[in-house]
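sry for the spam today, last one i promise. struct tokens for design, 472 residues
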């Protein structure tokens, strides 16, 4: 492709992106990816199989239940305890004796709203191809959705190479999945339409939702690793995680909330480094210090440590204080690096390790997602009055799509309103600012990350005229 033609194509692609950003409703020009035909992304692909290199996000949402709700300002009660007895000890049997009061606290949550649109699609362009060599039977090898439960389940990835509308809907799903993965941990109340993420809820300083009175009995266990390396040389990650587990398990025991279940959650890079050192540190924690100067020796079996490390990685579990817990790696957890944190050098990273409760006695869920149910009968009764509307919901009312049209052009708009609920912050904990230095950082699904990669083009130069006597 000559430079002039490339510049023309780049200008055209830039203009389509600008149109997509500017449009508030379906415009009168197609801004969606043309899959086939002139400038079609796949119009010059001759082999049938197209292999994906797209990185999908993963995280805690894959294992959390999603429950429908229409309550905008709920209250979740916590019995925080009983006051000390007050009053004088009785002399006679029928005298007044000391008495006390029960105390409680309420927590709350707020829905966030997330919206993503498709680009505008021109109806008649959806059926076009460049010529007979423009094959529309392409097959996708690999997946672009499906690890988080944060996208509409009715999207058909197999159709995104040949059907423009499905390609656009899946793209909206990808963008939705990325953002919700981030908000699950990093969501900040009052920031646009975000809900409060788990990092903000696993915290000290809990207060009553109505009176703003402190509720320390509901505080989480929050520890600071102060940018020490999890591989050693400073604070002991085994000591910190063991103490946290013991403290929280004690709470659950004394509160009568057992049996209960928890998971450890961290970034995948941190998990990789942690498993390298955990077997050795865990099996010798405090042991080495206790024998220094005594003439004793600590013997480490390298093969056993490697076997334990590999077992942790393949089984995604970790043993803490003799209890084995599942481990979830999550891309949505914030990660500090040398460019956004002066405490870190190049190649060093820091993030938090979370101990998250899932259920308490009676299999009662205490960490879960809630969503506005767009199937609600009252809402349906109102929508039914708007005859001719083409809006529809999917996934049991979790997502809703609206269709906008202008003559032969149309676009779809996706909306979901969700929040994440932590009913027992007193059974949750986090170790902040844990530093790690992997040999290589993993690729990221976050388009704003320095470790995100895509490449290629959205439009392909197919020379939309060719040569003809009439074209001279």
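last one done:
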């Amino acid at each position: 492709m000559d430079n002039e033609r490339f510049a023309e194509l780049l200008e055209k692609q830039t203009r389509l992106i600008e149109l997509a950003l500017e449009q508030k409703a379906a415009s009168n020009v197609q801004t969606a990816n043309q899959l086939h035909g002139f400038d079609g992304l796949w119009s010059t692909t001759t082999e049938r199989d197209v292999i994906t290199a797209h990185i999908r996000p993963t995280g805690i949402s894959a294992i959390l239940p999603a429950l429908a709700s229409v309550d905008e300002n709920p209250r979740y009660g916590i019995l925080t305890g009983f006051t000390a007895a007050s009053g004088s000890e009785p002399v006679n049997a029928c005298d007044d004796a000391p008495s006390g009061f029960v105390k409680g606290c309420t927590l709350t949550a707020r829905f966030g709203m997330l919206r993503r649109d498709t680009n505008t699609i021109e109806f008649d362009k959806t059926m076009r191809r460049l010529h007979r060599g423009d094959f529309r039977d392409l097959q996708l090898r690999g997946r672009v959705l499906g690890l988080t439960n944060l996208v509409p389940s009715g999207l058909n990835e197999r159709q995104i190479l040949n059907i423009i509308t499905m390609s656009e809907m899946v793209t909206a799903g990808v963008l939705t999945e990325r953002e919700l993965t981030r908000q699950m941990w990093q969501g900040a109340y009052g920031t646009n339409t975000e809900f409060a993420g788990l990092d903000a809820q696993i915290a000290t300083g809990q207060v009553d939702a109505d009176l703003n009175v402190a509720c320390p009995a509901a505080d989480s266990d929050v520890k600071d690793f102060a940018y020490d390396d999890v591989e050693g040389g400073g604070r002991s990650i085994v000591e910190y995680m063991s103490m946290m587990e013991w403290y929280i398990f004690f709470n659950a025991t004394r509160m009568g909330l057992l049996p209960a279940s928890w998971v450890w959650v961290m970034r995948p890079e941190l998990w990789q480094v942690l498993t390298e050192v955990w077997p050795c540190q865990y099996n010798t924690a405090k042991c080495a210090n206790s024998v220094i100067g005594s003439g004793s020796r600590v013997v480490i079996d390298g093969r056993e440590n490697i076997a334990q490390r590999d077992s942790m990685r393949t089984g995604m579990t970790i043993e803490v204080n003799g209890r084995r817990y599942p481990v979830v790696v999550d891309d949505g957890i914030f990660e500090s690096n040398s460019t956004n944190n002066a405490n870190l050098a190049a190649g060093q990273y820091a993030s938090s390790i979370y101990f998250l409760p899932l259920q308490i006695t009676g299999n009662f869920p205490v960490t879960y997602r809630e969503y506005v149910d767009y199937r609600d009968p009252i809402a349906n009764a109102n929508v039914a009055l708007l005859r001719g509307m083409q809006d529809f919901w999917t996934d049991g009312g979790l997502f809703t799509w609206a269709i906008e049209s202008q003559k032969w052009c149309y676009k779809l708009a996706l909306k979901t309103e969700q929040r994440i609920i932590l009913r027992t912050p007193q059974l949750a904990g986090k170790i902040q600012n844990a530093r790690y230095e992997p040999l290589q950082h993993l690729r990221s699904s976050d388009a704003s990350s320095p470790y995100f990669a895509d490449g290629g083009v959205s439009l392909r130069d197919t020379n939309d005229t060719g040569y003809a006597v009439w074209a001279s």
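The chain has one domain: 1-81+103-463. ok im logging off now
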